[in-house]
Amino acid sequence: MRREPKGYLALVLHAHLPYVRHPEHEDFLEEDWFFEAITETYIPLIEVFDGLVRDGVPFRLTLSVTPTLAGMLSDGFLQERYLRHLEKLIDLSGREIERTRWMPEFHPLAQRYHRMFLEARRVFADQCGRNLLTALGRFQELGVLEIITCGATHGFMPLMLGRRNAWRGQIRTAVFDYRRHFGRPPRGIWLPECGYEPGVDEVLAEQGLRHFIVDSHGVLFASPRPKYGVFAPIVCRSGVAAFGRDLDSSKQVWSAKEGYPGDYEYREFYRDVGWDLEYDYVRPYLHGDGQRTNLGIKYYRITGPGNHKEPYSFERAAEKAAIHAGNFMFNREKQVEHLEGLMGRRPVIVAPYDAELFGHWWFEGPQFLDYLFRKIAYDQQVLAPITLSEYLAVCPVNQVATPSVSSWGYKGYAEVWLDGANDWIYPHLHQALERMIELANAARRGDFGTDALRWRALRQAARELLLAQSSDWAFIMKTGTMVDYAVRRTREHITHFSKLHADILSGAIDEWWLAEIENKNNLFPEIDPLAWAD
């Protein structure tokens, strides 16, 4: 008989991508972010969950699915494009089987990739009916997965000038959209970039949310200081609980020097056939502009710190993933045993990660999770996996405190999202927000009456503001990758918003142009522009 655990492990995966949808182009490079994440992260995670449920393994995991990602996963246009993308990979991997026939170090790998892509098509098209949200919703109904939400477009709350209208617009839109996809309200939220400032929790409570996550220092520097550190949630005066990230479990996975993903047996992310093979051979699988890009077939392992790379082995990498899962579990056991003795109550170790780390960046990540949950279930009795809502039910009495202003990322206080490379966007975002509040107040007063075209334009103005507020654009400008695209997207949404604002006030709506941008930026069909009203 299994005894009561001494503590809990709350694994939290944050599944997020910015909204990238370009029907005006035949194909679009940035849409590959979405396609790669489906093939390498979301489908492998679903397969891991399926196997655990099938085998009766009592696992628990919290997964945030951001509204932009949910919008893309449920979009028929992008679903069709993903299938087209997958068919190319199936064709390329079939050709690779032939090309590597007399290359014993690569031929088994080519066969594995071909099977992997065929299985991805089966899961996506046949098992999930092209919408992966159906599979995730099923795991939530089974009670093994808690799906939480995020800001509507991952807008960074602390840089919205403390305007509750802005927070409410992001959060209410997210809650409405979650209910549309999953048929129930969310209980928790991953604040975008873990960005918190006092008052945000009051808007969360207003919208029915019960818990959120902050980085370690958000809890450690709370007022008053928390008795149990990050190993128990604190409860804001609004009644919403804040969970803090555990540093030790994070370092074991995130650290570039000490983290598991850097092990030399694991697959090398930066060696891809899109760059390694002759151009004429890979040209049919590239985008229309012909630029080389990653195609998803990678034959080498990390090997070492230098440029020399040796062939990858699925089997050796799987063995190392099992070893690392055992090591991670052992460290959490010792951590729980120590903490339970100090605290006099069952601690919770909150381990949040970007979901795309598991599979896309760390190819073996889903295997690691599979081994970890199986080992926790059968190889120890010290700790148990738990979701955040379940922990609040098991341990409902917690200290009242106010988290500190904080974020995750470099230095932990918003510096990534407010920097010399991206600070120019904020005057435009702030002005657009003030104008949105002005429009929402006018609509609430009845200034627009029942003018259906004006209300359509108002709803689209809200969408364009939300899309402009996405923290992804500032992040990309800071990191220096795909900067032109991030700048273009910011300017495009601000320009759309400005024209809509002027047209709504004048009553002269360009219906043809409105329909065009509604078709392109078509997320949040149930958006409520009055969320921005005072």
TrEMBL record:
GO cellular component: extracellular region
Domain called 1,4-alpha-glucan branching enzyme C-terminal: residue spans: 428-532
SUPFAM superfamilies, per the entry: Families 57/38 glycoside transferase middle domain, Glycoside hydrolase/deacetylase
Keywords of this entry: Carbohydrate metabolism
Binding-site residues, substrate: 245, 262, 408, 472
Protein name according to UniProt: DUF1957 domain-containing protein
GO BP annotations, alphabetical order: alpha-glucan biosynthetic process
PANTHER family hit by this protein: 1,4-ALPHA-GLUCAN BRANCHING ENZYME RV3031-RELATED, 1,4-ALPHA-GLUCAN BRANCHING ENZYME TK1436
InterPro entries: 57_glycoside_trans_central (IPR037090), BE_C (IPR015293), Branching_enz_MT3115-like (IPR040042), Glyco_hydro/deAcase_b/a-brl (IPR011330), Glyco_hydro_38_N_sf (IPR027291), Glyco_hydro_57/38_cen_sf (IPR028995), Glyco_hydro_57_N (IPR004300)
Active site (UniProt): 193, 354
Lineage, uppermost ranks: Bacteria, Candidatus Eiseniibacteriota
Top-level lineage group: Bacteria
MF terms (GO), sorted A to Z: 1,4-alpha-glucan branching enzyme activity
Family listed: Belongs to the glycosyl hydrolase 57 family.
Protein transport keyword on record: no
Key word Acetylation present: no
Ranges where the Glycoside hydrolase family 57 N-terminal domain occurs: 10-390
